[in-house]
Amino acid sequence: MRLIRILFITFCIFLLTDLCRADQASQNDPTTASSDSLDTTLPQYPGKSFGSYMLDVPEVILSSPIYVVKGISWFAIEGIYRNGTLRRIVNQFVAFEPVEGFKPVISYGSNKGLRYGAGWEFFDTFKQGDDLFIKGSYSTNEYQKHSIKYSAPSIFSRDAGLKLLLQYQTRTRESFYGLGNDSRNEDKVSYYLEESVVSATTRWRTARGLAVEVTGGWIRSNTFDGKSTQYVNSLDSSKTLLGLTDLDLANAQFLRIGGTIELDWRDNKGQPSRGGQESVSVTYSKGIGDSDDLSYITTRAEAAHYFNLYHKRIIALRLIAQSIDVKGDVPVIPFQFRSGLGDANLLRGYTTNRFIDNDLTAAAIEYRWPIWDLLDAFIFAEAGRVYGSITKEFTLKNWHESIGTGLRLWNRDGVILLLQGAFGEDDTQFYLELGGEW
Amino acid sequence: MKNFLRPVLPVLFILLLALPFGCSNNRENLRPGQPRLEEHDNRNIEQPKVAEPVLAWQSADRTLFMQAEQLIDFERDFRILTGNRREAYNINSFDQAYNSSWFTNRIGFVEFTPEQVLHDFGEVEGPDTSGVWTAFRPKVQGATPGFWIEDARGDQYIIKFDPPEYPELATGASAMGSRYFHACGYNVPQETIVLWRPEQLRIKAGVMFTDRSGVYREFVQSDLEDVLARIHKLPDGRIRSLASRVLDGKIVGPFSYDGRRKDDPNDWCPHEHRRELRGLYVVGSFINHYDLKDQNTLDSYVTEDGRSFVKHYLIDFGSTFGSNGDRPKSAKPGYANTFDLRDMLVSWFTLGLKKWGWEDARPQDAPYPSIGYFESEIFHPAKFDPIVPNPAFENKTSRDCFWGARIVMAWRDEHLKALIKAARFSDPNAEQYLLEILKERRDKIGRYWFNKVNPLDNFELDSDSAAGALRIRFSDLAVKYRLEEDGASRYQFEVKHKGKRLLRGDESSEQQVVIAANDVEELRTAFKGGKPSGTAADHLFEVSIRTKRNGGGAGKAVGVWIWYSPESDSFQIVGLDYQD
Question: A-contacting residues of B 153-182, CB under 8 Å?
Fold first, then answer.
């Protein structure tokens, strides 16, 4: 027990060292000083982190057959560790008793490779019922994610809680396809994203499923040339082609404040068969530092409804619209902050953020049916598109479509495991992930 | 053409190899004399090792791999395709299971009174409540707490309780389940409802145990008080418990529903081919014992009549009737395996259009908490399923099920009332409700399985008739148990010798077959004539009887084998052959 604590503290120290070094690298870079110096070369990503050295895996493993299983989103033993039902099943075969508070992190993704990490969860630290979770992880492809999360659901009153987040992450092999609804698969480039987030959220709940959230925080984002060896184009060489500015690519900082109203009247969070879930959120983002001439408002509306045909044969409908309203005559918003379509939850037949622009609309219909007590199968069809301005360009033409099927393992608290395959115009995507949005 | 045949030839070869096995018969040779009644598997043996199988793995194996293995068992496949499933091995010529270390023929085969349902267990009726109980071991595992005690007589029991939310549920189900299976012929521990006062309980000094948090320490008074604080108590302060008598002998682990115990020379028959384990499907379905798995069995090395051998027990009846141990049964148990790959695939590929019977179950509407969810409307005798696939049940035939149905149908209303009395329910309405459900389930079982096999039984041959005729009397169980109207069924027969039909009788509504004197003479002639093979076949005549119900066509046949002895010029019934 003591050894685990020592290892964990050592790990946290290196985590903080990495975090400081990475942010320092972006601050020192001369190219981030001016947003209109379009001819300058792009900054280089920071050198290898401690975690990357620790996890350095020979190329032969990275190019092993499992790596070419494209699109497997992520799978974490962490989930088994956290989930009581899965843990009981595992315990039938091997003695598996978790060390109190310790949470391992192991996952795999085709972009990030194999991810390792550890976390420690503390309960009742400041107030009865609160939860402090410190976690850090590295991957073989130098993805890293470190976070400190604090959650106190009843800190102000029985129904009013607080969430705090401090997070740093790097994603070295992300894909960008250009802006607009007509972006082409052939134009994709690889980019490296470094992001730091600090946020505080308060949430009030009512007995009838109504919740109000207010969030404030700070976000900084840097993008560099990606490290993927699969793409010929780089972000640098493509920026003119794609209409990007340097501001898109480096050291964008924003202060944010926003609110969400959510009505959740589902009969069951894991297998909703009646009711629905609606939410509207508005977030104001004000640029600071190099981005101080930029501010915008993001509005998002989302509705999901569930209809029980008979005996848990369920039709689920989902509609989403998101719009970004830019204030004043300012440069365009960095692409990573815009509205994106395509991932394991929305327009599943496409890779993450396959289509990016200011605004988006999307719709999905799923038919779900039980094949075991806690396992449902589903088929779905969905469509979506992005716009420069939804108010000026809205149309029902040129929506990108995706169909697919999958399995969802659930319990009454929500989705435990989601396995799905989806077909889009570009490719076929497979996802295996813990949790699910709806 | 040759290219086409090449891949098919190995399959044909395998099927040809399977053919002789597919046609083999497990029946013991038909000979005059008394049928064999005893298995004689109580020969003196060395004590076997204590078996400690990984029971969770066994459940996974049954759930995931057994079904795949069955698929590539070509002999089994061939038998299923040809409608010739392997019959149980341990049956005598009258299709009965032997008395053995597994089973004793009781209700359905011998006279068994309602009084015996309550009091056939032995010399004592539960622990002695007049003296002190000494608790010598806590029960820390399981959903409900408990402990081991020794009463003033020196008998040892495991004391179990109901959860406070559901008084009488688990203890009532266990007490009835234990008596039910005993009366049906199985070996079970005696489980009795007992009312006692906490003051009579003492703790044996120096008892060590490992508590729930994993600490090895002494069993002290506060542990006992902790247990008693979490259980249901009667208004007068007494405690209702289930007292499960500790089995005699040395426990040597559970038995498996397939294979044999290698270190037990008496264990000659693969368990999945034992009649009493296959027929347990029907016997268990009656009281909804959906937890019939290896974990709920025990082998004990006992010494009886100077011989030491392994005796096989069914244990733990907390998941019977409407109980699920510490709570009422939910919708699915009893109607489907917890995890059934076949059902899942069907649901998956039909996009959920296939609706399972249990989906109509409404456990929330169960009227009596002490009974739990126990019903007779959705229940279908052939769609009962234990929570884990059971290899013996996977191999059952209609004859096995008919055998089980004979036992179930022998439970008349008075037997059922006696069984319910064992639960000592406080609410008479709950008792009446349970009785009605049991009667409906029983009759459903009878109607279904008596329709799969011609349900004629209790054959008697009367050859002393003055006219020289042969009269075979029988009992139509469907009529006997009032599932069919008396007089509405008609019986027709034919007599064969060496596969050749000798004569055909007229239809009759009487439960008997009469072979007229001149026809009997024809049988004698058939024996003397032709080419004698010098085998039993020369002496055997098959009287094949079919039953017509309500003006319909003739159903399946039951063959009555008659042996002709020329020395005494007499006939004798030597066996029965129920068409499957």
Answer: none
Cross-chain Cβ contact A92/B351 below 8 Å: no
Give the closest of B56, B59, B352 to A313, CB-based: B352
Instruction: Identify all chain B residues contacting A313, using CB atoms and an 8 Å cutoff.
Output: 352
CA atoms within 13 A on the CB side of A432: 12
Q: State how far the Cα of B53 lies from the Cα of B48, in Å rounded to an integer.
A: 14
Helix (H) or strand (E) holding B433: helix B428-449
A-to-B residue pairs, Cβ atoms closer than 8 angstroms:
31
Cα torsion angle, B234, B235, B237, B238, sign: negative
Cα A252 to the chain's mean position, in Å? 18
Residues B332, A373: C-beta atoms closer than 8 Å: yes
Partnered with residue B67 across adjacent β-strands are: none
Whole-number pLDDT of residue A117:
85
- Taking an 8 Å cut-off on Cβ atoms, the answer to whether A369 and B347 are in contact is yes
Q: Which residue among B338, B339, B351 places its CB closest to the CB of A369?
A: B351
Give residue A49's pLDDT.
57
**Half-sphere exposure of residue A210: CA atoms within 13 angstroms, side-chain side:** 3
B339, B348, B359: residue with CB nearest A377: B348
Of the pLDDT bands very low, low, confident and very high (cuts 50, 70, 90), residue B509 is very high
* Nearest partner of B503 among B562, B456, B543, B554, judged by Cα: B543
Each residue of B150-205: pLDDT tens digit? 999 999 999 999 888 899 999 999 999 999 999 999 999 999 999 999 889 998 88
The three-state secondary structure class of A259 is strand
What's the pLDDT at B205?
87
Contact call for residues B35 and B109 (beta carbons, < 8 A) = no
Nearest to A371 among B56, B59, B348 (CB): B348
Contact B352 A370 (CB under 8 A): yes
> Which contacts (CB < 8 Å, 24+ apart) does range A10-17 have?
A11/A118, A11/A136, A12/A134, A12/A136, A14/A50, A14/A51, A15/A51, A15/A136, A15/A146, A17/A50
DSSP letters along B478-547, please?
A: HHHTTSS-TTSEEEEEEEEETTEEEEEPPPBSSSEEEE-HHHHHHHHHHHHSS---SSGGGTEEEEEEEE
Query: A363 forms bridges with which residues in the sheet?
Result: A319, A383
**Can you say how many angstroms the Cα of residue A379 is from the centroid of all Cα atoms in its chain?**
23
Instruction: Tell me the sheet residues that pair with B512.
Output: B473
Span A228-236, mean pLDDT? 66
**Measured distance CA(B481)–CA(B474) in Å, rounded:** 14
- For chain B, the maximum distance between any two Cα atoms, rounded to a whole number of angstroms, is 88
Q: Which residues of chain A make contact with B355, given a CB cutoff of 8 A?
A: 310-311
In whole angstroms, how far apart are CA B481 and each of A142, A243, B411, B440, B574? 77, 88, 10, 13, 26
User: With contact defined as beta carbons under 8 Å apart, do A323 and A358 qualify?
Assistant: yes
Most confident region among B37-51, B122-136, B453-467 by mean pLDDT: B37-51
Residue bearing the bigger pLDDT, B1 or B14: B14
CA nearest to B54 within chain A: A93
Collect all residues with Cβ–Cβ distance below 8 Å to A133 and sequence separation of at least 6. A103, A119, A120, A121, A122, A147, A148, A149, A150, A151
Kindly state whether B332 is in contact with chain A, defined as any CB-CB distance less than 8 angstroms: yes
Show the tokens assigned to B56.
């969770």
Inter-chain CB proximity A371 and B347 less than 8 Å:
yes
